[in-house]
């Protein structure tokens, strides 16, 4: 059976049109704007690499880049390991396991704003956590008013929100781990810990790389947690501002510096692309060994 | 950016805007026939004021046969994004509800009709200070009909004052007393304030905020003001969240009785009554703290974009919505005040009936006659953020008050260009 050569394109057209309009065109436009002094109400003039020179001298950029990097480094290990452990518990078929799985997945489907508000109430200087701390004889802790603790609090929320999502990915991967490998290891006398390190982890390594890559990208691009916990301010003196938050603060509103915000977005894209390429390369190298 | 209208909150919305030169709004369009269809966009008036707005629209259509006004209300969240998207696309509605700080960048980009050129006889119909709030000093031109205004008293928590041994009937009347009383409250671990000063607070303190086309709030008086806040912060007279909080957050802390004093509006009083009855039972109301003799004023307006295909009708409708009769009706519904020169003469704004609401209303209406919009129209969101961040650094001792203000002013002037 033959078909006209353009027939597949007709099927692709709707999806392609949406992709071009809402992803590729804005992306290309962002690159163009990065080399201009565009504002929200004007396309601006071509300014060459001025935005990038300014960025190199902008302490806010370096602070935001440092915070984003720190965020990524801190959230990736728990987001790779904890969901795996939870998935191993959740895959057991025992009565009531559905409730357990649902409990862990709930934060994933909860609105980011609702999650942010709940954690703000919990961690506020007069919030539940501080009330407990005070009742136990301690002094109130500035979870949301100290720039370092604000970052740590946001990381905790990010990990909490990510557990369920990555758990589901691990559950799918665990279902594909051959049972006979575990049985063979058991026959050879391997205990549960040994089986975890020698059977489960090697079998799940591609999935772990995927989770690491996804959580690294999401960690570096963090916005909603830090925005909501800091009330949109980036913490006292803006000291907890991350890259995406800096982009938002710079480019928002009718008076936003869209050109500079685009340059920041472009640099963020390059950093994230670099991260993904490194991850992929490491994964391939290990595959070849 | 979280922004609240007076109707949804109060007076935290810095508003002011207008002016700019070189506008070529066409008089021919303004003088053209009032007919055809226009779109009127408001900011979060549905569903509470649906009947009122529909009534205004119907009355206009009856008065001007052959006109159709399509009313579109946008929610408060995302309003700015909506205006920005429409402005970028050149498709703003014919009549838009904007505060001055939104009308300023639109006017600067040449997108709004200059009312001083298009409707030369309109100016006397409005309070001078309200009209001026839509102008840029020295440059002329007005880009919005002043609509509703607000100003407000200072609310304080009498119970917290009593706990600290302060006379609950003698709240601070000036900034010096504010610091003295705040330090006394702090001794009892009670915070007086929920936020660091806004740009309007600098104006109320008597600081020259903006002069000769640049920001100047780092002048010695500004430094003195921040030093006072630093002393209060160090003593614990500001809650820790004050360093990152906007007006809305500070209001919530006052409602939760975590701070002893907060500026407010007539609208807030009703909110305390229903949402915080224990606070309402102890609420004290006093005049705004100002060193200049003039209270702060907040306002909204309606502007007509140049892109309107039916400018004559849009201008006529903008004027109609903001005329004395319609504004007074609206003000009675919404705890706001009219910006027309005659609107404030209505007995509703001049006569007390013994209730707290009437007392606040009459006092606020009186204040509005001399009130000033202390927030320069040029003061953008990014500048607000820069000031907040620099003040936080000053409070935390990372910078001296002088250095923090110098840095804030430099950043604001850079953004001005």
TrEMBL record, chain A:
Primary residence: membrane
**Membrane topology of this protein:** Multi-pass membrane protein
Extract the SUPFAM superfamilies matched here. Answer: MalF N-terminal region-like (SSF160964), MetI-like (SSF161098)
Q: Where in the cell is it found?
A: Cell membrane
> Where in the numbering of this chain does the ABC transmembrane type-1 domain appear?
65-279
TM regions (residue ranges): 12-35, 69-90, 102-122, 149-175, 258-280
Record keywords: Cell membrane, Membrane, Transmembrane, Transmembrane helix, Transport
Q: Would I find Endoplasmic reticulum among this entry's keywords? A: no
Q: Which InterPro entries match?
A: ABC_transporter_permease, MetI-like, MetI-like_sf
- Keyword Repeat in record: no
Gene3D superfamilies reported for this sequence: MetI-like
**One Pfam annotation, family name?**
BPD_transp_1
Indicate the family of this protein: Belongs to the binding-protein-dependent transport system permease family.
* Name of the protein this chain belongs to: Sugar ABC transporter permease
Identify the taxonomic lineage of the organism of origin: Bacteria, Bacillati, Actinomycetota, Actinomycetes, Pseudonocardiales
């Amino acid at each position: 059976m033959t078909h006209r050569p353009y027939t597949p394109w007709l099927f692709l057209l709707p999806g392609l049109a949406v992709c071009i309009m809402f992803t590729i065109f804005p992306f290309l436009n962002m690159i163009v704007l990065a080399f201009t002094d565009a504002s929200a109400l004007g396309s601006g003039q071509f300014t060459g690499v001025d935005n990038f020179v300014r960025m190199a001298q902008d302490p806010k950029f370096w602070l935001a880049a440092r915070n984003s990097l720190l965020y990524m480094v801190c959230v990736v290990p728990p987001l790779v390991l904890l969901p795996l452990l939870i998935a191993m518990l959740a895959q057991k078929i025992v009565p009531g396991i559905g409730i357990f799985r649902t409990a862990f997945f709930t934060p994933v489907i909860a609105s980011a704003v609702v999650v942010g508000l709940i954690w703000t109430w919990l961690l506020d200087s007069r919030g539940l956590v501080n009330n407990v701390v005070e009742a136990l004889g301690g002094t109130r802790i500035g979870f949301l008013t100290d720039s370092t603790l604000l970052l740590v609090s946001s990381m905790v929320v990010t990990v909490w929100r990510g557990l369920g999502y990555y758990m589901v990915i691990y559950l799918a991967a665990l279902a594909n781990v051959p049972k006979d490998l575990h049985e063979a290891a058991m026959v050879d006398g391997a205990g549960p810990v040994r089986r975890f390190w020698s059977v489960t982890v090697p079998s799940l390594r591609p999935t772990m790389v995927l989770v690491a890559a996804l959580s690294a990208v999401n960690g570096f691009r963090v916005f909603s947690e830090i925005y909501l916990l800091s009330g949109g301010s980036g913490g006292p003196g803006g000291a907890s501002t991350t890259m995406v938050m800096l982009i938002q603060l710079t480019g928002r509103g009718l008076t936003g510096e869209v050109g500079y915000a685009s340059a920041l977005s472009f640099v963020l894209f390059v950093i994230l692309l670099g991260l993904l390429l490194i991850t992929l390369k490491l994964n391939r190298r290990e595959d070849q060994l | 950016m979280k922004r609240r209208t007076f109707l949804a909150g109060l007076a935290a919305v810095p508003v002011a805007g207008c002016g700019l030169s070189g506008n070529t709004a066409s008089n021919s369009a303004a003088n053209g026939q009032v007919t055809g269809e226009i779109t009127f966009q408001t900011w979060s008036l549905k569903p509470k004021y649906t009947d009122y707005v529909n009534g205004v629209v119907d009355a206009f259509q009856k008065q001007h046969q052959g006109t159709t006004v399509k009313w579109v209300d946008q929610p408060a969240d995302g309003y700015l994004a909506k205006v920005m998207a429409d402005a970028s696309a050149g498709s703003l509605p014919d009549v838009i509800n904007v505060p001055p700080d939104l009308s300023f960048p639109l006017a600067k980009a040449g997108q709004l009709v200059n009312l001083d050129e298009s409707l030369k006889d309109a100016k006397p119909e409005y309070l001078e200070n309200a009209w001026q709030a839509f102008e840029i000093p020295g440059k002329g031109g007005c880009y919005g009909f002043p609509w509703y205004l607000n100003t407000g008293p200072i609310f304080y928590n009498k119970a917290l004052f009593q706990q600290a041994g302060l006379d609950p009937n003698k709240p601070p009347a000036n900034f010096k007393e504010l610091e003295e009383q705040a330090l006394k409250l702090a001794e009892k671990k009670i915070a007086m304030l929920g936020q660091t000063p806004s740009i309007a607070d600098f104006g109320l303190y008597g600081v020259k905020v903006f002069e000769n086309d640049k920001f100047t709030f780092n002048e010695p008086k500004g430094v003195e003001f921040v030093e006072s806040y630093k002393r209060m912060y160090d003593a614990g007279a500001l809650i820790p969240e004050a360093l990152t909080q906007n007006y809305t957050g500070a209001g919530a802390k006052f409602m939760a009785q975590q701070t002893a004093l907060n500026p407010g509006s007539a609208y807030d009083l009703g909110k305390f009554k229903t949402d915080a009855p224990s606070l309402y039972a102890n609420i004290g109301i006093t005049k705004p703290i100002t060193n200049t003799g003039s209270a702060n004023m907040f306002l909204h307006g309606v502007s007509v974009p140049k892109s309107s295909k039916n400018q004559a009708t849009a201008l006529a409708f903008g004027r109609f919505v903001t005329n004395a009769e319609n504004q007074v009706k609206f003000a009675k519904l919404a705890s706001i005040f009219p910006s027309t020169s005659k609107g404030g003469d209505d007995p509703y704004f001049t006569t007390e009936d013994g209730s707290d609401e009437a007392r606040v209303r009459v006092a606020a209406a009186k204040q509005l006659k001399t009130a000033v919009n202390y927030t320069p129209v040029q003061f953008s969101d990014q500048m607000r953020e820069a000031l907040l961040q620099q003040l936080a650094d000053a409070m935390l001792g990372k910078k001296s008050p002088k250095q923090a203000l110098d840095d804030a002013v430099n950043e604001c002037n850079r953004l001005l260009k």
